[in-house]
Amino acid sequence: MSHILLITSSPRGADGLSTRFAADLARQLADQRPGSTLTVRDLSVDPLPHIDDGYVDGRVTPPESRTPAQIEAVKLAEALIAELAAADILVIGSAMINFGPPTQLKAWFDYVTWPGVTFKYGGDGTEGLVRGKKVYLVTASGGVFSQGPFAPMDFQSGYLKHLLGFLGMTDIEQLRIEGTAYGPEAAEAAIATAGKALQSLLTQPA
């Protein structure tokens, strides 16, 4: 039995390929594990407010001294972190926007990246505290960024993997849906290739 957390963030909502493939992957992972639970956080349907001084100041202010705005900001961050901590498997859907992840997903990371809670400082640098999780990163892009001339411009994959690793999540599998902007035939081929890659992931141990 596993607890799976699915996070989607495409501005296109359910029509976004990153959302469609991430949701399909999460459902099939759950089906493979009888008794598993699936929590869905759709950041397109229910976007998070961007962090502000309520969050930045509130998380370092003693609970009894927090303002109402700080209380709400910290409460939201704590809820998101609790959701993450409860998961054994994390499935993230991210659609490339201007070479990086959507701002909706960036906001989620801003809330869960909390010094002393999800990572800590030590004599040898920083240490991620969110450990023991399998992560499936599902990325979609109109161009081809896994190789070729656009590869150096893929600020989505590297950035997200860096943040995950920074928090302690290093067991990451990436599923790419790419090259969909090169016409209907290319889009169809890209979706078919991604579908085969998804099925391959499902045969691997989580």
Characterise this structure.
This protein has 206 residues and is an alpha/beta fold. The protein has a single domain, classed as 3-Layer(aba) Sandwich (Rossmann fold), CATH 3.40.50. Helices cover 39% and strands 21% of the residues. It contains six helices and seven strands, in the order βαβααβαβββαβα. The strands form two sheets. Strands 2-1-3-6-7 form a five-stranded parallel sheet, sandwiched between helices. Strands 4-5 form a two-stranded antiparallel sheet. The mean pLDDT is 95.
Architecture blueprint of SSEs:
Layout lengths: L2 E6 L8 H16 L4 E6 L10 H6 L9 H19 L2 E7 L7 H10 L6 E4 L2 E4 L5 E8 L15 H10 L4 E8 L5 H19 L4
Parallel strand pairs: 1-2, 1-3, 3-6, 6-7
Antiparallel strand pairs: 4-5
Which features characterize this protein?
alpha/beta; 7 strands; globular; Rossmann fold; 5-stranded parallel beta sheet
Number of helices: 6
Helix percentage: 25-40%
Describe the biggest sheet? 5 strands, parallel
Count of distinct strands: 7
Short description:
By secondary structure, this protein is an alpha/beta fold. The protein is 39% helix and 21% strand.
